[in-house]
Amino acid sequence: MSQARVIATSPFKKKGEVAPPRKKLKVPRLFIFLCMSPWLFGIVFFTAYPMVSSFYQSFTKFNLIESPQWIGLDNFHRMFFEDDDFWQALKNTIWISAISIPLRIAFAMFTAWVLTKPKRGRNIYRTIFFLPSMVPAVAATMAFTYIFNPAYGPINRMLEAIGIKEPPFWFLDPKWSKWGLILLGLWGIGDTMIIFLAGLLDVPTSLYEAASLEGASAWQSFRYITLPLMTPVIFFSTVTGVIGSFQYFTQAYVASGQVNDYSHSMYFYATHIYYSAFRAYEMGYASALAWVLLVITLLCTLVILKTQKRWVHYPNGSLFK
Amino acid sequence: MSTMTLENREKLEAQSLQARRKKRWNNFLHMVGNHSLLIALSVIFIMPLYLVIVLSLMSKGQAETRSLWPHPFVWHNYITVFTAVPFLKWTLNTLFVALMGTIGTVVSSVPPAYVLSRLQWKGRQTTFIILLSTMMLPGQVTMIPVYIIFSRLHWIPSFLPLIVPSFFSSAFSVFLLRQFFTSIPDEISDAARIDGCSEFKLMMKIIVPLAKPAIMAIALFAFLGSWNDFFGPLLYIVENEDLWTLGIGLNAFQGIHHVDKNMMMTASALFMAPVIIIFFFSQKVFIEGVTLTGVKG
């Protein structure tokens, strides 16, 4: 808008004279409506109606064939007091979020930081680091369960070669299977890393120069320059990480299908919704699960948003300029 | 006096030479350190891909022996895979869904993004906030009613549930495009409007060509999102084997005995290949696209 104002000011006006208000363009209402209509249709039929509908269904017993039957809060009672799988799924999901979100942020920061160092060859390294994040999840998971196979997979052979006598059984061991998934996630760090890299390259070099003139150590300039300026990126990836981890499905589903995960060590929240809805056809119960998921995600996001004033530093004052 | 100065000078010169040498040596050490770290990380990132390719070229017997180099190279795996599993059909299905989804996403995301960034109207900000919040909405909340809609339409199993929604704007793509459109100066539009250009023509003839990189980015993201998608096909096409995509096919066949593990790696390698090739040709678009969706908004 400010740019438009500048044009509207005639160069022949004298200083101090107020520019006449910019000639108002007729707002092309029909055009706006037509352009927005695909989105409007989508939001009504694929978001708003489904949300209302699934909210209603969460209070019903509904198996797709018979019409939904109102049962009040029974679904929620069952979830919290009778369904062991729910607690197992919730525990697994919280466990993996608590470990993998900070690990992913640290690893993305580290790989991005390493990428800012070389004078030559940065693009080649960046390509290599980014590549795994492009690989289809099914193919990547199959590859990982295969190469991490304790009997014939090459990873354990390498671990033995460097002196680890009894390498873990990875996906075959309930204690280690989630670590396999975490490694799989770290391997695909590329897209997060690119955002961190952009953030790191945005830090003005003059700040580092000033710090080094003042005799700051590498750690100090990281701690007091890089880290504060990177907090918006860290904040962004924490929020998307929390939302993402409650929807974590494909890798866990494929991996547990490969190794017969009897102990449910790779049974996550999204898996539980999937099994309730499309294996047991308990649509009402699955809807209730989905709404609890929404509430949990909202609460987590709110907590992070509330704390952001204390630790997120915006150089321009706001996320949305 | 003069001898003193001379001595001093020599001393100083020697010192500065030493300092420069030391600095150069330090820089060299730094470079070696950086590159060794980068190479070590590269090896880690490449390793799984390398192993997939190596295993895909082994014979069945060798693939279960922990060896790390194919002996002999069984190139024939890459032909056998097409007869061992209906690989060609899966590929064509995946390609069809991905291409249609890409067209749908681009066609339905450009106009809302245009209107949300280049025109002033009442309710624009609210609309944009609603759009942003739908991006945060977990898909599980809407999944079941949407499934019911499609099943009432008798669209399950078919490709329609995978393709049709993409024609109703993807919030992510609209957001990304809007970010890019906003960066195009208003003067361009103003000039065209003064010349009597219609809003539609302005969008199609002036803004869209300028925004080609961003449109390429959303097209690529849409294509890859669909190519890599597993959950959508799992809901909508599993019941009909003729409709299986690569992800569903590979996941279903990995448990079956007559398909060898090495063959699954061959199939995985072929599944990854298009993505990797596309990436190599369009890295710049990708990386700029990812960056645009980050905090730079």
Describe the structure.
- The complex is a heterodimer of chains A (321) and B (297).
- Chain A is an all-alpha fold.
- Chain A has 14 helices and two strands.
- A two-stranded antiparallel ribbon of chain A has the order 1-2.
- Chain A is globular.
- By secondary structure, chain B is mostly helical.
- Chain B has two domains: 2-56; 84-293, MetI-like (MetI-like fold).
- In chain B, 76% of the residues lie in helices and 0% in strands.
- Chain B has helices at residues 2-56, 60-63, 77-84, 87-118, 124-136, 139-152, 160-163, 171-182, 186-194, 199-210, 212-228, 231-236, 246-253, 261-293.
- Chain B is flat and about 95 Å long.
- The mean pLDDT of chain B is 87.
- Chain B: InterPro entries: MetI-like (IPR000515), MetI-like_sf (IPR035906).
List the helices and strands and how they pair.
The complex is a heterodimer of chains A (about 325) and B (about 300).
Chain A: H1 2-8, H2 29-57, E1 60-61, E2 69-70, H3 74-81, H4 84-116, H5 122-130, H6 137-147, H7 154-161, H8 177-187, H9 190-202, H10 205-213, H11 218-245, H12 250-259, H13 269-278, H14 283-311
Antiparallel strand pairs in A: 1-2
Helix pairs in contact in A: 4-8, 4-9, 4-11, 4-13, 6-12, 9-11, 11-14, 13-14
Chain B: H1 2-56, H2 60-63, H3 77-84, H4 87-118, H5 124-136, H6 139-152, H7 160-163, H8 171-182, H9 186-194, H10 199-210, H11 212-228, H12 231-236, H13 246-253, H14 261-293
